[in-house]
């Protein structure tokens, strides 16, 4: 079984469903709300585990009740969670969600510093097939361990604008870079620049328009989004895409095949009411293998 280390955020989120995101002061009525697992690294780690990949998740938790909820939600036989419980609250967000998938995310708490990388995580990095370092300051130490060990490094920089310095170390270190096109004027130019700088793959997700990617040897690839009969929750769709893309890499697929698995995993995620769908690798492959 392949082994992946994921480093970054796991949170406990309150999701509030509203008819539209507020644009001015006033009152509106929610159609529902729930507390649930959140965090980009939690989403990737749990999706990969459900796809049959052994995962070590390095994250940061507090000493509150939310930490227990996060750990319980991450329970899976293929997933090992390593997090020192620091003093203070765990990461929490308030997410306003509309029926069409628009979201406004408000940070309620940031997690405590988890401290130095423990020996078991360093050992896991050394034997990993891939390390995924997500956008969190405490993930930088794992990123640097992966570079020193010459382990393939994947970084998902979400809606980076191509300028912000916080993301720079992740962008420049990545063997495989994934970015959203939400804030990029010219996604193809950014992808081309990263491959020219040494990345093996650079991929930009485009929401309902699918994704575009550039491979060092494969050239340009486009992957359309799979149609979804009913969108239930767009939270975690991008993380599911990365997990499916990574599954394709671990299976030895070229960029086009891996991106198709990513698109299938993303479609199954938005058709699921939670952060992570219950779909396994068989379901992802079945959807990905359908004729275009």
Defining traits:
4-stranded mixed β-sheet; globular; 13 strands; 292 residues; alpha/beta; 32% helix; 9-stranded mixed β-sheet; UDP-N-acetylmuramoyl-L-alanine:D-glutamate ligase
Topology:
Blueprint: E1 3-7, E2 11-17, E3 32-38, H1 40-50, E4 54-58, H2 65-73, E5 79-82, E6 92-97, E7 103-109, H3 119-127, E8 130-133, H4 139-149, E9 153-156, H5 168-173, E10 176-180, H6 187-196, E11 201-205, E12 211-215, E13 219-223, H7 237-250, H8 255-270, H9 281-288
Parallel strand pairs: 1-4, 1-8, 2-6, 4-5, 8-9, 9-10, 10-11
Antiparallel strand pairs: 2-3, 6-7, 11-12, 12-13
Helix pairs in contact: 1-7, 3-4, 7-8, 8-9
Overall 3D geometry?
A: globular
How does CATH name the architecture? Answer: 3-Layer(aba) Sandwich
Query: How do the strands line up in the largest sheet?
Result: 5-4-1-8-9-10-11-12-13
**Distinct helical segment count:** 9
CATH topology, which one?
UDP-N-acetylmuramoyl-L-alanine:D-glutamate ligase
Distance between the termini: 30 Å
- Averaged pLDDT, please? 94
Q: Structural class, judged by helices and strands?
A: alpha/beta
């Amino acid at each position: 079984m392949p082994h992946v280390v994921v480093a970054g955020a796991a949170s406990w989120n309150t999701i509030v469903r509203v008819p539209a995101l507020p644009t001015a002061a006033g009152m509106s009525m929610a159609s529902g709300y729930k507390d649930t697992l959140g965090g980009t690294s939690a989403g990737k780690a749990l999706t990969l585990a459900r796809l049959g990949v052994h995962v070590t998740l390095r994250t940061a938790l507090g000493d509150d009740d939310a930490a227990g909820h996060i750990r319980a939600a991450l329970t899976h036989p293929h997933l090992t969670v390593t997090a020192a419980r620091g003093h203070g609250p765990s990461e929490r967000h308030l997410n306003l969600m509309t029926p069409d998938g628009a979201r406004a995310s408000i940070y309620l708490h940031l997690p405590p510093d988890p401290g130095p990388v423990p020996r078991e995580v360093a050992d896991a990095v050394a034997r990993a097939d891939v390390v995924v370092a997500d956008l969190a300051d405490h993930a930088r130490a794992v990123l640097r361990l992966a570079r020193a060990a010459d382990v393939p490094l994947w970084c998902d920089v979400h809606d980076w604008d191509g300028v912000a310095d916080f993301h720079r170390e992740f962008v420049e270190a990545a063997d495989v870079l994934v970015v959203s096109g939400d804030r990029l004027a010219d996604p193809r130019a950014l992808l081309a620049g990263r491959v020219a700088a040494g990345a093996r793959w650079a991929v930009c997700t485009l929401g309902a328009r699918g994704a575009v990617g550039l491979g060092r040897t494969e050239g340009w690839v486009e992957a359309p989004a799979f149609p979804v009969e009913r969108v239930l929750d767009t939270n975690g769709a991008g993380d599911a895409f990365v997990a499916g893309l990574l599954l394709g890499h671990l299976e030895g697929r070229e960029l086009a095949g891996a991106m198709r698995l990513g698109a299938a995993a993303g479609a199954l995620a938005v058709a699921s009411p939670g952060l992570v769908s219950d779909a396994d690798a068989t379901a992802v492959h079945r959807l990905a293998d359908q004729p275009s």
